[in-house]
Amino acid sequence: xxxxxxxxxxxxxxxxxxxxxxxxxxxxxxxxxxxxxxxxxxxxxxxxxxxxxxxxxxxxxxxxxxxxxxxxxxxxxxxxxxxxxx
Length: 86
Prior knowledge:
Helix content is 26%, strand content 24%. With 86 residues, it is α+β, with helices and mostly antiparallel strands. Strands 1-2-3-4 form a four-stranded mixed β-sheet, with helices on one face.
């Protein structure tokens, strides 16, 4: 979890054995302050050199996509949501 001036501003939930990041978020008011980078640095230390994976990234979120590219993650697979009217 990340705090700034005793305010909860972000978190990451991950599995250090698999390198899978289940969830991560930084409050919009605190984005661009290196908080997300600090959270991912913590993940990198915990996985001890293994690959890190983030699943289900919303492609419509430009800020999330830009951030993940900035820290060195690359897109491997695209996922599509399909809807059927009933």
